[in-house]
Hints:
The longest helix has 26 residues, at 161-186. Helix 1 packs across helix 6 (161-186). This protein is elongated. It has helices at residues 20-30, 72-82, 96-99, 104-110, 135-142, 161-186, 196-203, 205-210, 250-260, 276-287, 292-299, 312-317, 338-342, 353-361; strands at 11-15, 34-39, 62-66, 87-90, 115-120, 191-195, 232-236, 242-246, 306-308, 369-372, 375-378. A 6-stranded parallel β-sheet has the order 3-2-1-4-5-6, sandwiched between helices. Helix content is 34%, strand content 14%.
Amino acid sequence: MSRxxxxxxxxxxxxxxxxxxxxxxxxxxxxGASVLRIDRPHPLAYTSTALPPTVDTLSRRKSSIAxxxxxxxxxxxxxxxxxxxxxxxxxYRPGVLEALSLAPSDLLILNPRLIIARLTGFxxxxxxxxxAGHDINYLAVSGILSQLGRAGALPYAPANILADFAGGGxxxxxxxxxxxxxxxxxxxxxxxxxxxVDGAAYLGTMMRYGIKTPLWNQPRGENxxxxxxxxxxxxxxxxxxxxxVGALEERFFKELIRGLGVETIVEGxxxxxxxxxxxxxxxxxxxxEKNRQDWERIFAGKxxxxxxxxxxxxxxxxxxxxxxPVRLLVSPGREIERQNGWTSxxxxxxxxxxxxxxxxxxxxxxxxxxxxxxxLLKIDVAKL
Length: 384
């Protein structure tokens, strides 16, 4: 039985960025890929002074080299690395790679098996293509943000999970895996383009279709799954804790009202939408009668779809174990050690990168490359 991670042997080069692209490469690294991050030059890089980690916390299992891509010898080094790589992740806006003399068409000539993943926020063409943006902007123009939030309030963006991570990094990793699968059949790499607008919009497919059905045809915050329904809601408890209720099906709803002790009182209110505000107030009052732990005990093991809202600190202190999102029984990913599931040690520029150059290419400093002014530079063999 194989215990080898499914992506072991896959070599990934990631141009340093924040959030979406690092998350995509983190997924690949956790399932066995070797990931080399290309950091910007630093005046103290490759000196006796240890550099601090960058602000990128999604650096588990990665290595780094520092390159000044404004210098031809640094670009030449990166091109040499890419000839030995399987995947190249580009987090920049359209046109940046080309300006750095790293046009995908040229890279595919150097390495026809290379998969070049180009992750942008907006679509590469269209009115926003050249503009800066963040998760909230991508959600906004995808249509999804307009559907999120409470009734009578402004749209509400749920941190930067939907566009950056789900519609961006996760979808990018999916695209890379598709291209790797296709390469198994053809032997050829290709360019993989994804943007966070389309990624977020795709995640919202059911919400978009729902607008033309009773599921989601009411204004924001007045539908079944967006805060309009009393039995799909978060309720405060006496001690300030919260319980999440998702008793959508009737049999789960019956278990919920049994646990709350309001079976006879709410009869018929579920079917009459005009009585939902009254039902919500009743649920609010009932949950405020007890502490969260009391409600946990009442609903423990019951099919009431009623669970505590647990905080991250609470989970960490309880010894909760973070796990990979997908478990392969024959070829599992790399387990997340407990301390790495809760705290990122980060990755400082240059850490581990020269070891990767030795492993991938057999290169050593002073022979194929040199360090100068905070960057690695390829040695021009013709001038030796």
